[in-house]
Amino acid sequence: MMQNLPFEPEFEQAYKELASTLENSTLFQKKPEYRKALQVVSVPERVIQFRVVWEDDKGQVQINRGYRVQFNSALGPYKGGLRFHPTVNLSILKFLGFEQIFKNALTGLNMGGGKGGSDFDPKGKTDNEIRRFCVSFMTELCKHIGADTDVPAGDIGVTGREVGFMFGQYKKIRNQWEGVLTGKGGSWGGSLIRPEATGYGVVYYVEHMIKHASGGKESFAGKRVAISGSGNVAQYAALKVIELGGSVVSLSDSQGALVLNGEEGSFTVEEINTIAEIKVQRKQISELATEAAFSSKFKYIPGARPWTNIAGRIDVALPSATQNEVSGDEAKALIAAGCKFLAEGSNMGSTQEAIDVFEAHRDANPGAAAIWYAPGKAANAGGVAVSGLEMAQNSARVNWSREEVDSRLKKIMEDCFNNGLATAKEYVTPAEGVLPSLVAGSNIAGFTKVAEAMKEHGDWW
Ligand code: NDP
């Protein structure tokens, strides 16, 4: 039990989601000592909090808060992204770091879990302001990270540009070129496929869900796929869906949703590329929505999420913007629209109410509307997996081809799906015709791997 905790709603939500699936399985009956491991693993090994002072273009002093949560290093150096967004606080970074521990375990690579960032808002800032912020942020963070200690990457608000500025500052202060950050530029140590990895990985994961559910008969071909977000994860998920013959029927951003006008058609590759271009300039999709090419084909709904605003059937939903972006009612609406597969590109994309709805709809007997639900810690593990492959390439001073990295990513996503499925079958016994719970299976598989390593390190006994 968590006691005497500060008010950390997002972290508590992530903790309870994991703990409840362990409790509702046979895990603690078979291994009651794991209750102690759960207590230990839910406290970060270290939390670093610091002041970031930087100068804006007017010469004014600006102050932000910087953080790094070094949650767990049982399986390897702390690994997890940096988020720059005004909503960032310790509760959000603890939830993200906690999820990251088990996600990284599921990749099968040697990475611990961590997360960091700042309440800095990159929107509306010039490139020079962003550079000065990144330099100041790394001036402090560089004391606490390193290729064998803690290897951050990007997340919301942190792209290759910010990674570059931070890497440059690390190198200057430490006088060391090392793979201390992932998501680096291709010419200076970045891995091919890293930008695409999370979005592609989600789609590879869902391919296995579809294949398994249909006994190998179905694929993405002909599927109508609702996606939220329009950043890194959403863009590459959308491009891969189109490549595999599916239709993308929605995208969104923090200001609103862009959905197809009718029940036919799909976003095209060109339209997604146009959206990607405006996102590099930190603009909103509302600016595109009024252009003739977009307004004739799409409907823009300010302040809305896509889920309840799509005309016609939805086969697959991929929340790919931010946490808690699918409510209980939206989960019900998705199932009513025919959705059979939901996989989170975002971390904790679904509220607990939505997860409860999905888990209550696993009855695949004739006449019942069943849905396969994949939590972010399994479905979006492709990003950190390729970050792990970037670390391996940096250590060996080699660069793998696109094909090599992509095939490793595909294998990791396949293993991730099969591991969650097999573990669910081992620890949760559903009634006849009820689908295995991928959320329980993934949580248990990730948790037991970390718990065992911690036990061998003497972290609990
Ligand atoms: P980006 O910054 O590239 O894109 C984020 C997208 O989500 C944008 O469309 C943004 O809109 C929207 N968004 C951000 N905050 C909110 C909000 N509060 N409400 C509604 N929409 C919002 O980030 P990523 O694509 O990298 O990340 C998306 C999600 O995927 C996050 O949950 C992240 O943690 C997760 N993830 C990312 C990985 C990666 O490799 N990048 C790996 C694994 C998970 P706007 O443009 O208006 O800001």
From TrEMBL:
GO MF annotation, one: nucleotide binding
Residues where NAD(+) binds: T198, N232
Keywords: NAD, NADP, Nucleotide-binding, Oxidoreductase
Ranges for domain Glutamate/phenylalanine/leucine/valine/L-tryptophan dehydrogenase C-terminal: 191-458
Active-site annotation: K115
Superkingdom of the organism of origin: Eukaryota
Positions of substrate binding: K79, Q100, K103, G154, S387
Catalytic activity: L-glutamate + NADP(+) + H2O = 2-oxoglutarate + NH4(+) + NADPH + H(+)
Gene Ontology CC annotation, any one: cytosol
SUPFAM superfamilies hit by this protein: Aminoacid dehydrogenase-like, N-terminal domain, NAD(P)-binding Rossmann-fold domains
NCBIfam families: PRK09414.1 (NF006929)
Listed name of the protein: Glutamate dehydrogenase
